[in-house]
C-alpha cells in the first residue's frame, strides 16, 4: 500500500484509498529482499529515494479486530512482525504500508532505511500523552519486539539484562539479600543508583518464565485452580450482605465464566515479583485495591485476615457445621466432594441453626474456592474458616486486601514455574476480569448487559459490581484455540499505550451501572502503602508505581520499595507469629523491621 495517507477507522488503522499492489515471494524473504522488491515494484532507485515501511497487525481479541501499524526497519523487526501476524491467526498475507522520500542530490544516501519520526524512547514517560501509534508513531523499539517473549518499557528492559552483567554494573554481593539495602541497590564507589536502571533480582530472574521464553524455550500454559461455589439460597443473603460478599455471590449466581488459561498465563509471564506489577511495552500496570473493590465488591477496610486459632479444625467443623468430615491427614484442607455432598442444598424446612451451617459452608466455598483456592484442585482452603464461623463478624475483616495479597503471592510463585504441569492459584476471576477491563487481548464480545433493576432490589448492597457486567453480557469467541497462548504472548508484545484502558472506572463508564456502595466506600484506602496480609502471606502494595491508573501524575522513574525476597521465603509459623504481634499492637511498620 502506498501513494497516500493512512486513515483511522472504527477498528483502528485502515488503508482507505491507497494504491494496492501485490508482491509474491516463492520463499520467505529477508528484510533486504522485501525492500528491494518494493523498490522494483514502485520503479524507484535507492540512490534517489528512501523507503520507510510499516506493517499492519491485529491486536484485538476474539471477534474484536483492532489494527495498528508497527515499524519495519531491520531483519529483527521484520521477522517479529511476520511471526506476530501469522502465529495464531488465519491470515495468509502481510499488509505493508510504504512511504517514499526523494533524497536531495547533495545529500549522501543512507545505507539504512530511515526510522519513523518519533520521540527517542528514553524521552517517553508513562505520564506523557502518547502520539497516535495507529498513524505511524510507535511506543516501543522494534529491535526489542520478540515473538516469544514480552517486550518491555525502556526503563525496565529486563529481558536483555542477564545475570552475568552484575560484574559490569559493579553491583556488590552474590545474593539478593546483599544486593538490596534500604530500598536501593549498592553500586560500586558511587554509593547507590536508581533501581529502575539496575539488574533485576537474579534469584527471581534466572528461573522466570519470561527469561525462558526469551531464550527460545517452549513453555506450556499454567493450570488454573479455582472451584465453583455451592448452590446459592436466598436465605443466605442476611449473612452475605453484612459480610461484604454479596457482590461476589451475585457474580456466581449469574454464571461464572471459564478461566482463559492462555490469557492468564500470558499475563503471569509479564509479572515481576520485584515490583508487583506487570511490565508491558507501554509501562507498568497492576491490580490494585481499587480493582478489587470495583470488580468484586470486597471490603478493604477492616482487620487483617489472620486468626489465633484455639481449637482444632475438627472441633470447629463439629461446632459450626454440625458435622465433621472423615479423618484425612494426607493433606490440609477440606475435601470439596464432602462439602458438596453435605451442604450443596439447604433443606426447605431447615431451622435457623441448619441455615447458618449451610450459609457457613456456602461462604467457605466462595472464600476457599474463588478468593483463596487451594493448589490441590480437590480441597477448600480452610485457614479462613475460624473467621467464617462467626457469621456476625465476617464483614469486620479486610477480605479485599487479603485477596490481593494471595493473588500477588500466587503470581510471584507461578512466574517462576516452567514445568508442563505447573499450577496457578489466586483469585483468577479477579485477574481475568481485570484484564478484560483494561486490554483488548482475549476480551470477549460484550452484548447488552441485563442488569437487575435497582429500583426493585430489597437492599442497596444487592446492587451490581463492575465484574457482574462480564457475566450477564459476555459472549466469548476465539479463533485458533490451539495456539492462543503463543498468540496472546505476541499480542502483549505489540501492546501500545492507546490500547490500554488506564482508568476504566471513570464516572462516564460506570454511572449507568448503579454500583453497590461497597465498591467505593473504601476509596480513601486505595492508595495506602500498608502491607497486604493473608495469614502467613505478607505482600508489599505499590500503588505509587501505577499512579496513572488512578488518574494521577506518574513520577518517572517511580520510587522504589523493596518487595523483599526474604519476605517471600518466610515459613508459615514464623510469619503467623509476626503477624499476630504486628496487628495486636496496631503497628504495621514493624512488619519490615
TrEMBL record:
Do you know which InterPro entries this protein is assigned to?
AminoTfrase-like_pln_mobile, MAIN-like
Q: Name one Pfam family in it.
A: PMD
Tell me which residues make up the Aminotransferase-like plant mobile domain.
247-560
The segment annotated Disordered runs over: 104-131
Any Gene Ontology biological process: meristem maintenance
Question: Domain of life of the organism in this record?
Answer: Eukaryota
Name the PANTHER family for this protein: AMINOTRANSFERASE-LIKE PLANT MOBILE DOMAIN-CONTAINING PROTEIN (PTHR46033:SF82), PROTEIN MAIN-LIKE 2 (PTHR46033)
Q: What is this protein called?
A: Aminotransferase-like plant mobile domain-containing protein
Q: What species does this protein belong to? A: Aegilops tauschii subsp. strangulata (Goatgrass)
Amino acid at each position: 500500500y502506498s501513494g497516500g495517507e493512512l486513515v483511522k477507522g472504527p477498528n483502528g488503522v485502515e488503508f482507505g484509498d491507497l494504491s494496492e499492489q501485490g508482491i509474491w515471494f516463492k520463499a520467505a524473504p529477508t528484510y533486504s529482499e522485501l525492500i528491494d522488491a518494493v523498490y522494483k515494484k514502485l520503479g524507484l532507485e535507492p540512490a534517489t529515494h528512501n523507503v520507510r515501511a510499516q506493517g499492519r497487525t491485529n491486536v484485538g481479541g476474539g471477534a474484536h479486530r483492532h489494527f495498528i501499524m508497527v515499524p519495519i526497519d531491520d531483519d529483527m523487526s521484520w521477522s517479529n512482525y511476520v511471526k506476530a501476524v501469522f502465529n495464531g491467526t488465519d491470515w495468509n498475507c502481510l499488509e505493508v504500508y510504504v512511504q517514499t522520500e526523494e533524497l536531495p542530490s547533495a545529500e549522501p544516501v543512507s545505507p539504512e532505511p530511515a526510522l519513523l519520526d518519533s520521540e527517542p524512547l528514553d524521552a517517553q514517560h508513562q505520564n506523557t500523552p502518547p502520539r497516535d501509534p495507529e498513524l505511524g508513531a510507535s511506543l516501543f523499539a522494534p529491535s526489542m519486539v520478540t515473538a516469544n517473549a514480552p517486550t518491555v518499557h525502556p526503563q525496565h528492559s529486563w529481558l536483555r539484562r542477564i545475570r552475568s552483567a552484575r560484574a559490569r554494573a559493579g553491583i556488590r554481593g552474590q545474593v539478593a539479600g546483599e544486593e538490596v539495602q534500604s530500598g536501593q541497590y549498592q553500586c560500586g564507589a558511587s554509593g547507590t543508583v536508581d533501581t529502575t536502571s539496575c539488574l533485576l533480582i537474579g534469584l527471581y530472574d534466572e528461573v522466570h518464565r519470561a527469561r525462558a521464553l526469551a531464550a527460545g524455550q517452549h513453555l506450556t500454559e499454567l493450570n488454573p485452580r479455582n472451584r465453583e461455589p455451592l448452590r446459592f439460597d436466598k436465605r443466605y443473603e442476611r449473612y452475605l450482605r453484612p459480610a461484604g460478599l454479596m457482590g461476589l455471590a451475585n457474580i456466581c449466581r449469574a454464571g461464572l465464566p471459564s478461566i482463559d488459561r492462555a490469557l492468564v498465563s500470558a499475563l503471569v509471564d509479564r509479572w515481576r515479583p520485584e515490583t508487583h506489577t506487570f511490565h508491558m511495552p507501554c509501562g507498568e500496570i497492576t491490580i490494585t485495591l481499587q480493582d478489587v473493590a470495583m470488580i468484586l465488591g470486597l471490603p478493604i477496610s477492616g482487620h487483617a485476615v489472620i486468626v489465633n486459632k484455639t481449637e482444632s479444625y475438627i472441633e470447629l467443623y463439629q461446632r459450626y457445621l454440625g458435622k465433621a468430615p472423615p479423618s484425612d491427614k494426607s493433606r490440609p484442607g477440606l475435601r470439596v466432594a464432602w462439602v458438596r455432598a453435605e451442604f450443596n442444598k439447604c433443606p426447605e424446612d431447615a431451622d435457623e441453626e441448619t441455615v447458618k451451617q449451610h450459609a457457613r459452608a456456602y461462604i467457605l466455598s466462595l472464600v476457599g474456592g474463588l478468593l483463596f483456592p487451594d493448589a490441590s484442585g480437590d480441597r477448600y482452603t480452610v485457614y479462613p474458616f475460624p473467621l467464617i464461623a462467626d457469621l456476625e463478624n465476617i464483614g469486620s475483616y479486610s477480605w479485599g486486601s487479603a485477596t490481593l495479597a494471595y493473588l500477588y503471592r500466587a503470581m510471584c510463585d507461578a512466574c517462576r514455574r516452567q514445568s508442563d504441569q505447573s499450577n496457578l492459584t489466586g483469585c483468577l476471576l479477579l485477574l481475568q476480569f481485570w484484564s478484560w477491563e483494561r486490554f483488548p487481548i482475549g476480551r470477549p464480545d460484550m452484548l447488552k448487559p441485563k442488569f437487575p433493576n435497582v429500583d426493585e432490589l430489597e437492599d442497596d448492597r444487592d446492587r451490581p459490581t463492575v465484574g457482574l457486567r462480564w457475566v450477564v453480557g459476555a459472549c466469548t469467541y476465539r479463533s485458533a484455540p490451539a495456539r492462543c497462548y503463543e498468540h496472546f504472548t505476541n499480542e502483549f508484545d505489540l501492546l501500545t499505550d492507546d490500547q490500554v484502558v488506564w482508568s476504566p472506572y471513570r464516572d462516564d463508564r460506570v454511572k449507568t451501572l448503579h454500583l453497590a456502595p461497597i465498591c467505593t466506600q473504601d476509596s480513601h484506602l486505595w492508595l495506602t502503602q500498608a502491607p497486604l496480609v493473608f495469614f502467613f502471606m505478607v505482600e508489599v502494595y505499590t500503588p505509587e508505581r501505577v499512579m496513572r491508573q488512578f488518574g494521577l501524575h506518574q513520577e518517572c522513574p517511580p520510587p522504589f520499595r523493596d518487595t523483599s525476597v526474604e519476605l517471600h521465603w518466610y515459613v508459615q509459623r514464623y510469619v503467623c507469629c509476626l503477624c499476630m504481634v504486628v496487628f495486636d499492637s496496631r503497628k504495621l511498620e514493624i512488619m519490615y523491621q
